[in-house]
Design brief:
33 helices, alpha/beta, 37% helix, five-stranded parallel beta sheet
């Protein structure tokens, strides 16, 4: 047996079969060994081994002894240097990593304004590749060290030693190159293109063809101006939006600027839009000529594309500051008037109506599934034909019909559509007649008036929903009876608003927080109101004409809106015996209202002075006996609310936020019908400045349903909040409350004594800020597509507060947890069932938190079953987001996860968790410097794994150690549409094949990173190249 062991050791030492082959100069080992004497099978094992050894040595020494001796000697010498070379490599790697870290720290310090040079990118790419190779050698060395109890191949050690020595030389060279790179930072350029929401038009040649014509003209350096001309509603703006977003445009120009121009916008407004796009600070520049020079200086050396939408008249571009560069810069504009093209365009592109087939296809898309109901398609084709093949008409008419789900409704709607006569407006007759039809389809006269009310506001401007509903309620357009609850009126208003947006007469904004009215639809609404004495409007002058209204305008109008008109003066006592609403908001230059101004406005219901420069209110305010809505918010120079306010006994809404008024004056107690009060808690430095304040009036406002208190003087608030909250707790009709609790104890007292809080079904909307000095709009609410009514902001808490917060959480939809001092995870924070209602959660600067939830500590319990949005930021100790195993219902609705600036985070979640978040649609990871691997390998029992089957958006930014997206390269990405990767230098490959990214539409990344990627299949890169946006 000793002979056999010795033989095995010898073979190991000489590298076994391969070493013998080299020693025998390439001849087969079996051939050479065959020449050795064969031991008889009958021999004992021991003697057999001895004979084999003797034969091996005899044959080898006789025929190749010298070769083996030389071969082994060279390998031994090289092998002996391996430890020394490894130590040298470790030192050199440390030097190179330190140099790279110094550069990265400098880059991060200036990342907002600076970017890196190309030479630095080339060097960094070489550094990252070399360090990866060095890491591979180090790993192999460590593997060999684990084998130290056994014989290590002589050849293997020798080869390692040579590679280590060569690697040291490469690293030393990179260190020297890095030291002579010089300044690696240069100014960051302005973002060339800002994408806008644009409908897909590739399926509609009537829209796609003009787009391609414009693209062709953009390549002609002899052309400067290009006009897109056609009737209202034909799709000009849609073409422009697609032009703005087109990938070829981004390659042709240094910058693309978008500006909307219509009949109510001045050249100064246009300058503001362009300056914003160029990131120019012009707020302090007084004169348009100076703004023009600033714009000129920014653009004079750039190849720009200026896109102007809805141009109503000729524009002198030089007066705005647009230089006439001779470098291929272009101006493209849309207009309904051909004379504009003759003065501004070198070439004209006419946009014609859709073809009948295109119009039908678009109509089908707009009405969606309704068209598949029995017997509806034949009538639907007739309705589509009546849309005159205009995209805007199709959108509007289809919006009116898609809510009809029976043949009889479609038949009746079609007959009504055919009845209405044309509105006599030259050039717009067809469009306006169909919009008039949609207006009449509202049937309900109150809904029509609600729609027309929206025309009081500038086209495309944001009309905030809560405010609009309050105006409707004040005029009696929603809410019905006098004694109705304010919330009932608001609910009815939401129903009307939803209907108006569904039929596209109003455009829905984010989460229905605001709506807007398209310019063409607003024209129709203003025309309709001009024909109806009961809806007589005056919406102000053009911006270039700041003169006041004529006497007849005041006398005949039921509603007057002069918003953003730079008003300076108002008439002394206009005769307004019919006036219902007066909207003067955002006239910052209006500093004084004549004392008798309101004398003849006894029917006035809504008065909006938001954002004016007024310093006081006139005594004639007391004449407004019918007034229901008074808006003085952001009148920053208004310091006193006159006692005459107490005479407004019908007042239901009072908004004095952002004024310098000291909280609630005592005479507010007379407003016995007040339903909604919004105030700021403000304490003047003047000790005599708040003598009118009296918190004891709060309980006297018995009908109050909505209360908002914005805290501006936080230190004073902390001293008085207990007394104030004691008064607020007596209000028994509250449905909406926004307020700040400096400490959790104050919250506890309120919850114990509040009559409204005890009836949980009544207080349906709240924003509670516990321990938060800043009452800015919560970030978490911005991420939802629908409105969230129950929000809790909890700041700087500790474990002793947890039980109080635990009582509030079951009623909360959105939570922001900021700077908690103690918690390590939500599981430790409170009873996990308290989170069952939470839909959105933001956690920030909770520096002891190591994980959001550990399923192993839940013992089968359910956590966050309704959570949709999770945002994590600046958690210094976070090591993983979710860990362990969770119940089926836990995290089952999570669709968005955003993690940023968590320096200790190495793993997002364990392998058992990833199957739990299968609904995840958007994943964003940014500035997590220790993250190495995004998705761990999962056990899929031989099936093609789809760990995140619904993931559509993946964004990875600034993760220097990220090596791979997934440890399992066979992972399928069936829903992935968008990938963004920036500043992830060690991410050398993507786990993409021909078949696992079928829906991928967009890749955004750095060009140098993309070109350095390694691909499993050569044709995959070519396949994805066409959807890349590289910088």
């Amino acid at each position: 047996m000793k002979g056999i062991e010795f033989l095995n050791s010898l073979l190991l030492l000489l590298g076994s079969h391969q070493v013998l082959q080299q020693a025998f100069q390439g001849q087969e080992v079996s051939t050479r060994l065959a020449q050795f004497p064969i031991v008889e099978a009958s021999a004992s094992p021991g003697s057999m081994a001895d004979n084999i050894v003797a034969s091996c040595f005899a044959g080898a020494v006789t025929q190749a002894g010298a070769d083996i001796t030389n071969y082994v000697t060279s390998k031994v010498s090289s092998s002996q240097s391996m430890e020394k070379n490894y130590e040298n490599l470790t030192n050199q790697v440390a030097k190179l990593q330190a140099l790279r870290y110094d550069f990265e720290r400098e880059v991060k310090k200036h990342q907002m304004k600076k970017t890196t040079t190309s030479s630095y990118h080339v060097w960094l790419r070489s550094v990252n590749k070399t360090l990866d190779d060095a890491k591979g050698l180090e790993d192999r060395y460590e593997e060999d060290r684990k084998l130290s109890s056994r014989y290590i191949h002589l050849k293997r050690r020798s080869n390692y030693s040579g590679k280590l020595e060569k690697m040291c030389e490469e690293i030393q060279k990179l260190v020297e190159e890095g030291k002579v790179l010089g300044d690696i930072l240069v100014d960051k350029p302005i973002e060339p293109v800002l994408k806008v929401n644009a409908p897909e038009i590739k399926a509609f040649p009537s829209l796609q063809r003009p787009l391609e014509q414009v693209l062709e003209m953009l390549r002609n350096d002899k052309l400067k101006g290009i006009g897109i001309w056609g009737p209202l509603g034909v799709g000009k703006t849609t073409i422009m939006k697609n032009l703005n977003n087109h990938e070829q445009v981004a390659k042709m120009f240094d910058i693309v600027i978008w500006a909307n121009v219509n009949d109510e916008r001045s050249e100064e407004k246009l300058q503001e839009d362009i300056s914003w796009w160029l990131k120019l600070k012009v707020e302090d520049i007084l004169y348009p000529e100076d703004v023009a020079r600033t714009i000129f200086e920014e653009l004079k050396d750039k190849k720009y594309l200026l896109l102007l939408d809805e141009v109503m008249d000729s524009i002198e571009l030089e007066d705005i500051g647009i230089p006439d560069n001779k470098n291929g810069s272009k101006v493209v504009f849309t207009t309904e008037f051909r004379h504009v093209c003759s003065s501004m365009a070198d070439r004209l592109i006419e946009v014609r109506k859709l073809s009948p087939n295109e119009a039908w296809m678009m109509f089908q898309q707009m009405v969606s599934e309704v068209i598949d109901l029995p017997d509806i398609e034949p009538i639907a084709r007739l309705v589509a034909k009546e849309c005159a093949r205009l995209p805007l008409l199709i959108k509007t008419i289809a919006g009116a019909f898609k809510s009809k789900d029976s043949v009889s409704e479609w038949r009746k709607g079609f007959k009504d559509l055919q009845k209405w006569p044309e509105i006599e407006i030259p050039g717009l007759t067809e469009l306006h007649s169909f919009l008039k039809f949609c207006y009449d389809q509202l049937k309900d006269d109150q809904k029509r008036k609600c729609f027309l009310y929206g025309a009081l506001y500038p086209a495309e401007s944001k009309i905030y929903t809560d405010y609009l509903l309050e105006c409707w309620a004040a005029e009696g357009l929603v809410g019905g009876t006098k004694e109705r609850r304010f919330q009932d009126a608001r609910d009815e208003g939401y129903d009307t608003l939803k209907h108006l947006t569904n039929v596209s007469l109003l455009e829905k904004g984010e989460r229905m927080i605001y709506v807007s009215m398209n310019n063409s639809i607003r024209q129709v609404a203003l025309y309709i109101s001009s024909q109806d004495p009961d809806c007589k409007f005056f919406t102000g002058m053009s911006e270039d004409s700041p003169d006041c209204l004529e006497e007849n305008d005041w006398q005949q109008s039921k509603r007057i809106a002069m918003i953003d008109k730079k008003l300076q003066d108002l008439p002394n006592s206009p005769n307004c015996s019919m006036l219902l609403s007066l909207l003067l908001q955002r006239n910052y230059t209006l500093t004084e209202i004549p004392q008798s101004f309101f004398e003849k406005m006894k029917t006035l219901l809504v008065l909006d002075l938001y954002g004016t420069g007024i310093e006081s209110l006139p005594s004639s305010l007391a004449k407004l006996k019918c007034l229901k809505g008074l808006y003085l918010n952001n009148c920053i120079h208004l310091t006193v609310l006159p006692t005459e306010v107490g005479e407004l006994h019908c007042l239901e809404v009072l908004d004095i936020r952002g004024c310098r008024i000291c909280f609630i004056p005592f005479y507010i107690q007379k407003l016995v019908n007040l339903r909604c009060l919004r105030v700021s808690y403000y304490k003047s430095s003047n000790p005599n400045g708040c003598q009118d304040m009296d918190i004891d009036v709060i309980p006297l406002l018995a009908k109050l349903e909505e209360l908002t208190i914005d805290v501006h003087s936080y230190d004073h608030w902390c001293k008085e909040v207990v007394d104030i909250m004691r008064q607020v707790a007596t209000l028994k009709n509250l449905t909406t409350l926004t307020i700040c609790f400096p400490k959790s104890e104050v919250l506890k007292t309120f919850m114990q004594h509040s009559l409204s809080w005890k009836d949980r079904k009544q207080l349906t909307s709240f924003r509670f800020y516990v321990g938060c000095q800043n009452q800015k709009r919560p970030q978490i609410l911005e991420y939802f597509k629908y409105k969230i009514d129950r929000y809790l902001g909890y700041c700087q808490g500790n474990c002793s507060d947890n039980s109080i917060i635990c009582d509030l959480l079951p009623e909360t939809d959105a939570l922001e947890l900021i700077e908690h001092k103690d918690i390590t995870s939500l599981v430790d924070f409170v009873n996990v069932s308290s989170f069952n209602r939470i839909r959105g959660c933001l956690i920030e600067r909770c520096n002891k938190m190591t994980t959001i939830a550990d399923g192993n500590k839940l013992e089968g319990g359910i956590i966050l079953p309704k959570l949709e949005q999770l945002h994590l930021a600046n958690l210094q100790s976070l090591q993983t987001v979710f860990w362990g195993t969770f119940s089926t219902e836990s995290l089952s609705k999570l669709h968005t996860l955003v993690v940023s600036s968590c320096p200790m985070l190495r793993k997002l979640f364990s392998s058992g968790t990833i199957q739990q978040i299968s609904k995840l649609q958007k994943l964003v990871i940014q500035s997590c410097i220790e993250m190495e691997e995004l998705i761990m390998k999962t056990d899929t029992a031989g099936q093609v794994p789809t760990a995140l089957p619904n993931l559509e958006i993946l964004i990875l930014i600034e993760m220097p150690k990220l090596r791979c997206l997934s440890a399992d390269n066979s992972l399928a990405w069936p829903s992935l549409k968008e990938l963004q990767v920036y500043k992830c230098p060690q991410l050398k490959s993507l786990p993409f094949f021909k078949d696992n990214t079928a829906n991928l539409k967009s890749i955004e990344a750095e060009k140098i990173w993309w070109e350095a990627l390694q691909w499993p299949q050569n044709d995959v890169k070519q396949q994805l190249q066409s959807i890349c946006n590289l910088r």
